[in-house]
Amino acid sequence: MHRAGLLTAIHVPDEATEAVRDLCRARHDLDDDLKRVCRRLLAFLLRQGRVYRSGSTWTVAHHAWLAKQFFEDPAPRATFGYYLSVVKVREAELAAIDREVRGWVDREPFADAAHRLAAYHAVGYLGGLSIAVEVGEWRRFASAPAFMAFTGLVPSEYSSGGRRWQGSVTKTGNVVVRTQLIESAWHYRHNAAPGRPLKERQSHVGPDTVARATVAHRRLSTRYRRLAARGKNPKLVTTAVARELAGFRWAEMTS
Fold first, then answer.
1. Stated pTM of the model
2. 152: left (phi over 0), alpha (psi -120 to 50) or beta
3. For the chain, where are the E strands, in sequence order?
4. Is residue 25 predicted with pLDDT exceeding 80?
5. Where are the domains of the chain?
6. What b/e string do you get for 78-104 counting C-beta neighbours within 10 Å, with b at 16 or more?
């Protein structure tokens, strides 16, 4: 079976890698919890007719607006207080685990992969470390499409005879990596000019990595805007960009 190419390579992490991977997954879970309680609070305010209309939510201005909300009736006042306190607790927990995870970025054997992945637009150190510990050995994927399948960002397929039909993405791959790629892809809708945080991250890697990251930034930003200009669904555009971004990640780590 090995001679025929019928075996699939796997990666068994050592105890240190598995421990850091669990820590990164804990951060992923806390981030999900925070988003969930934030949605609950916004849904409650919507039922009360309180809608924030001064920009994006969960900014400094939005937090100041939340602090000014007051209800005459004691029941909704207590409900709002409980919802808001849970949001604050989750924010504090996420900030604490962010500091904990950040301390592992510069430690071996994660430092090289984490910094190289963080040199790409909209990843950051925490995202780079999370992807690095989830994937482990990148060369077990023989090609970029194989890694894309690992992330669950490839189209599902239903074929019979000469008929071939592709549906939505499978979503059967690694959830943490796929979530990170999707969240990163959203940021490619903006201009391809690198900001100060990105330049700081790129100062810790070699020129070859910076060159590849720059090519990916320009290509994916252009691709996002072109697909959006053609009237494509924003979610489909983001998924397409995330799938191609996975290919750039694989190329970077196997170069």
1. 0.87
2. left
3. 155-160, 163-169
4. yes
5. 13-102, 108-255
6. ebbeebbebbeebbebeeebeeebeeb
